[in-house]
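Notes, Module 5: Reading structure tokens.

Key idea: the token line is not a picture. It is a compressed description, and you learn to read it the same way you learned to read a sequence, by spotting repeated patterns. We will look at two proteins. The first is printed below with its tokens.
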Amino acid sequence: MLRKKPYLYFTAKEIEPRGWLLRELRLQADGLSGHLQEVWPDIAKSQWIGGDCEGWERVPYWLDGFVPLAYLLKDEKLIADAKKYIDFIISHQRIEPDKPTPNGWICPVKDDIEIENFDVWAVFLLCKALIVYHDCTGDERIPDVIYRALKNLKFHLDHFGCRAWGSYRWFEALISILWMYERRPESWLIDIAHNLEEQGADYKKIIHHKTWDKVGDGWTLGTHVVNVAMAIKSEALYSFILDLDGEPVDPDAFAEEMYQTLIKNHGNGIGHFNGDECISGTSPVHGTELCGVVEAMFSYEQLFLITGKEKWLERAEELAFNSLPAGLSEDMWVRQYNQMVNQIYCGKYPVDKRPFLTNGIDGGLFGLEPNYGCCTANFNQGWPKFALSSFARSEKGIAAGAIAPAALKTEINGVRVEVELATDYPFRNELKYVIKTEKPVEFDFEYRIPSCAVSATVNGEKKAPGRYTVSRVWEGENTVGIVLELAAGFKELPRGLSILWRGPLAFSLPLDEKWEKVEYEDMGIVRKFPYCDYILTTDSDWQYGFASEEVKFVEKDGFGLPFTRAEAPVTAEVEMVPIKWGYKDGFDGTVARDEPQERKPAGEARKMTLLPYGIPKLRMTAMPLVDEGEKK
């Protein structure tokens, strides 16, 4: 039998987003996510539904986020759209028992020769999306569809092998293999897992290879930021297979080693690592890809289930509250491919001169699909999967998960139980869990005080950061009220720079933004408002350092959409001083230097207002504390 996970997430049938999280999901549905099937040929006319456009990863990527979005919102139109795609895909799975090569094949191809050369990464991804659909609907067709697809995958691996993207994302197939093994524990499923591990990339070697210490050595699959974001969970997933073979390993050890290696060598100071599009060092102007953000979030959300360690939820929260909204426009109609911590311009660069190490010239644009369309399809999973991680089922009850406003409706021992987290965290410091039961029932309720709090009080009793369990008979309505004392201050980065934080929120100096619409058609794909491209420029002076470590945080009452300038829930007032920073060589007006030319004051200090990092798209975030710089 498979080793049990310490936790299991509830499904969209049981989770209800509330408060600001519900508003973010509705905004996503009203924006690009909910309209890609209408405006983007790679979804609307995909080979997956009988069209002639992209027939590999983009529809599965989109479905992986679109399906839970539709069901979390209980949006009948989106649910019908999702069903249309799933029904078409299922009905076109090839069922030919007398022909082992195509039997069970599920991806769109022209002929059997194309199957031999197909990159089966799309198979892994589609099966993952089908599992999400099954969680949302209970569709009884799905287990048989995945069973046949995995049978075909075994034949494919045995005869044609795993190549390219599939070989560097081999562990993603373990999600569906383990899911199927729980339902049908057949030995050939374990054979597939071993075959994938044998043919796939070995990240235990890759993270210690010399290429990981170098920056700018070219594009490789082994250093691709999305691959490594996915791979953080690779050994944890494979540990279930090793455990079956009597070779138990710590599922957390490699994940933590890989995470720490990435943060040390490529950390961007916002709880993530740079990759533009391959891992790219610690410069605040190299940036990171939006796909890497949402895949790291998913890895961390899964690692919490597998290891039981709350640090992974905290890491997912840091990305959700900072890097995810930073890569999306306020209305979520356009997205950015590559976000920089210090970003003073978003637009195209000359063909022969670009600031990115491996990205294209339009990697910084906001638009429908700048640089590559993968992020257009894949960003959709970020908020819905985060919402689904808000509560988890423990062995003896319910565990609070990612901290965001949400409610759970479930049954324990046949008794209806509701748990709601009412909160404006991370913008406020109060959490209120309201637990209601239909009649008396005994279970454990676990809650978490995040490590970004100095301390907390729980129903008036002082508590330290950590996870706590309340074991009791619950009856009627009960409240667990938590007030956090959030840590605040400056975190040091390489190059003598610092970032201001309060709790899980980083803060940036916002620059005035001029959004220039660019509408056009390219290769038959129309970009028009509201999903056109945008060039962002500023007239703001951005060359500053922190003049003081004294900070005043100001909270705004009655906010609606938290990641908008007009409704910023919290701001930071701090003394700042102009300094001579300068532009990166050859990028006058578009890219700041990695660090300032001089750190001595170039004028009088003045009080300035900083916003949470996820709000401004043009911003300075990593800046020097000028007094410390002068001492150096």
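Here is the second protein, with the sequence above and the tokens below, as before.
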Amino acid sequence: MTQTSWVDTRTVLLLVSLPLTGLLLLPTAYLVARAGGVGLAEAVDYLARSGTLRIMGRSVLLVAATVGASVLIGVPAAWLTTRTDLRGRRWWTILLTVPLVIPSYVGAFALVGALGPRGMLQGALEPLGVERLPSIYGFWGAWLAVTLFSYPYVFLSARAGLRQIDPALEEASATLGRSGLATFRHVTLPQLAPSIVAGALLVALYTLSDFGAVSIMQYNVFTRAIYLRLSLNLDLAALLSLVLVAFTVALLVISARAERRTHPATGRTHGAPRRVALGRWAWAAWAFCAAVVALALVAPLGVMAYWLVNGVQQGETLRDVFAPLQRSLRAAAVAAGASGLLALPFVFLQVRYPGALSHLVARAAYVGYALPGVVVALSFVFLGANTLSVLNDLLGLSSYRTFALLIAAYVVRFLAQAIGPARAALLQVNPHLEESGLLLGRGRVHVFATVTLPLMRSGVVAGVALVFLTVMKELPVTLLLAPSGYDTLATRIWSASSEAFYARAAAPALVLVALSALSLVYVLEPDD
């Protein structure tokens, strides 16, 4: 392979990737430009207001409380399923992971349906003279909803960390006379800390970007405040979005510093660890896992099933789910296909032609994924509203809310999910195989189609599947950008639960959870 051919290919990839990079960075750039129109004095005044400070304080409180609770649930659960003789460890692992696929707004709707003012518990207690339950709305409801459906991030990360720790270190500690608790505190926990930090970061980012649960629970944090300000002042909504982005960046910096201060696992070298016999504590371990599964999985599914039966008895028809399901599948399929296709130039540029520019271009693909969904959606709202007059003149469009704009926002938001698995697959493809094809006189496109793509197919398919399943659940982007009348499963659940029509929300919620559960194929390890 000649040097000229390498340069030509790299140039072509850059010509394809750079315009895409501009699209990926456009939301953040536009938010900065839009917020810049507020004016320094007005911006300082708005950010210093008591209402804005309360939004910041509530957001920090919710993140801290959710992360703390997730660690208290996830780490013990991971230890019980990897290091003890807990009966049914495999099944507990699956059951403790499944809540991850339940969208937070679906879980919040289930909690309100069970514990809300018109919920199941209220109806059951009314004959006993209980006319009103304590309100589930506000901080406690939002904290419970987000925690129950985000703790698996810590659970899975801690499990992975425990599986990498050399058991010989723990055995040596026990040989020196340390108790099991002392060994865990002084040997296991320091090595497990990076995994805990990684899982906690995912929980924190998930909490900070969550829109559905906090909105249903009426807890005014960043995402809900931005959504409510759309109809009042777009410039201030953009300013608040940038503050949310700053909080996200701060979390990433704090996480990076915390990881540098921890001691990573050394890797397994002496076989499987010895199982800790729970003995008389077996019942407590079983009760702990059962309580978590009951709250995070059995109760939400039970509530949705109850409201589904109740709705059918009251005349709700399941046929109403078909149209939103078709729209969800269509949008998810187009967005996933586009993301899988657009990921290829980024992947090839980063893997086959590494360098400073290639690295920057590849990193740009992760900007949209790091931004909360409501921020990405808001930037496209601004872009669409400002280009409406041009679109109206050229295409006769009366609204910027088009299917094409919706797909573009999905791609910006989730392209990184398609890049990750595809990049991992390409790293395993020996470049000499491609060079052999070129030396045999085949063109680059032919070599790619017949050699490279088949070898990296599993990674491409995995990335496309992840984007598909994530788009199915996405709420803020769909809510703000979907064309008029283009309701999906997510928006149908949102509108029905917002109006307390729980029976109407149950069927699409169960369908969405069932489809989302397919993602477990890419979450659980093969030997789990």
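Summary for the second protein:
- DSSP finds 27 helices and no strands in the chain.
- Residues 1-7 have pLDDT under 50 and may be disordered.
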